Structures are given as C-alpha cells and as structure tokens.
Amino acid sequence: PTGRYENLVTVMSFKPEFHLAGGLNLPKIIDCVGSDGKERRQLVKGRDDLRQDAVMQQVFQMCNTLLQQNTETRKRKLTIRRYKVVPLSQRSGVLEWCSGTTPIGEFLVNADKGAHKRYRPHDYSGFQCQKIMMDAQKKHSEEKYNTFMKVCDNFQPVFRYFCMEKFRDPAVWFEKRLAYTRSVATSSIVGYILGLGDRHVQNILIDEQTAELVHIDLGVAFEQGKILPTPETVPFRLTRDIVDGMGITGVEGVFRRCCEKTMAVMRNSQEALLTIVEVLLYDPLFDWTMNP
C-alpha cells in the first residue's frame, strides 16, 4: 500500500546444484538464497499444470478463514496446512518445499527403516501385500475378499508409533495426537468436498513438529479420480494406519466431532467456496482432460 519495498526479501542467487525428486516428471529441488541471507528450498515442476494446485491453495485459505470465524471450529483449532504455489505457465511452476515434513509412506513402508519392518518384522512387506492383491484381481469377489482379509491379518497397522517416537513427553504426545486427529478430520472433509483424489501415502506428508498433515500434488480433483482406469471410489483416505494414529477411540470421539463441525461450516459457506472454484469452470485454458 505504501509503495515502499526496501524491506521485501528478494532473490539474490540460486545454489549451483539441484536434486531430483521422485515422480513421473522428475521435478527439481533447488535452493534459493534470499537478500536476507536465508536459504529457501523450492520445488520446480515442468510438464505439469500447477494452476489447479494454486486454486486449491486459495480454497484452503478460504476454508481456514471460515473455520477461524466459527466458534466451534476455532476452539478446536481446526485448520488445513497450506504451501505456496506459483504457476509460471500452463506447463510449469514453482512450489514451496514443505520443510520438516516426511511422507507417511516413508515412515511406514520405507524399505530400510519403515515402521512396519521395525515393529512387525514378521508381517508381510508392503510389496508382498501389493503383489498378492494384484494376483487376486481377476478372481471371484468372495475369493478376492478372503485374500484381502488374509493380507490385513498379516499386515497390522503401526502408525501409532509415529507420535510415540517423535514426542516422548506424555503431555506433548497427547497434544500432538489430538492435533493429528483434528488435522485428518479437517483435511478429509475439505478433500471430500473438492473431490480430491490420488491420496496415496507419498502425497500426504506429516509435520514432524506439529503432527499435522500436509496434502500435496492436488492435480486430481473434482472427482476426476472416478474416471481413472482403476476408479477411486472412496471419499478420502481413512486406512487402518491412518486410524491407528488416532489412538484407542479410532474414528469415534474427536475425529467424528471435528468432521461434523467442519462439514457444517463448509455447508453454511458454500457460496463463498463456489466463487473461488468457479474460476476453473470459466478458464478457457484449463485442461479438463485426464491423462491416465
């Protein structure tokens, strides 16, 4: 408003080396040096339209504002974790690197130090479970169900150990487990309303300091997942490991109440949310076709 920009941090330089992140289009991880001397890590993506991600972050911001205005959701500190997205063109953009987070899949099924391997070494591995279920795809429904139940018996959830490992103090452990449960509830309901898909364990990060979830890679939304070769039929990710992190009450109690309160706020504010989302409806450059 003042037109004075002396105190704004600007880009001074970039580190000469970069790293490759996992993914189909091999995004690059770069380090930017600001005029304040601090290094900020960024993710540069090519061959990917990030405008939908940017709009989703705007929707999340609106949701946070609405949740903050409501008494019930404000006292429960319900919020959705966001990150910066800057689309540079239809096919490229820059994203803020979510420091201090780890993908849920990395904690659970990492080949060397995953929690499943450490806490239940005699269970099936994630790879074994996947192979068994893939082999059962062409079988009869009942046989497929029996195979699934056998896999479940031999692959028990272990996500409760995340909070036990990271937060040794009992009071802090309880506080972070509560924050985790609330975060799952809020992001699940908002994700359901937006038809957010592709919620595999590498696309959901967990903050190692706050235990809150951060959803990344928001390119599959508005129920586009339902037209994939293998349609996504679940409203949000609520697997046994996700529930395991909530403690003894599971989805009852804190999780259910937070879901109800979040849904009530979103339903009462639907016009405000539609205003943002309709940008995509009228954007002639937006590519609605899926590339399965």
UniProtKB/TrEMBL annotation:
Superkingdom field: Eukaryota
GO terms, molecular function: protein serine/threonine kinase activity
GO biological process, one term: DNA repair
Signal peptide span: none
Keywords carried by this UniProt record: Kinase, Transferase
Gene3D superfamilies assigned: Phosphatidylinositol 3-/4-kinase, catalytic domain, Phosphatidylinositol 3-kinase Catalytic Subunit, Chain A, domain 4
SUPFAM superfamilies xrefs: Protein kinase-like (PK-like)
Positions of the PI3K/PI4K catalytic domain: 14-292
Protein name per Swiss-Prot or TrEMBL: ATM protein
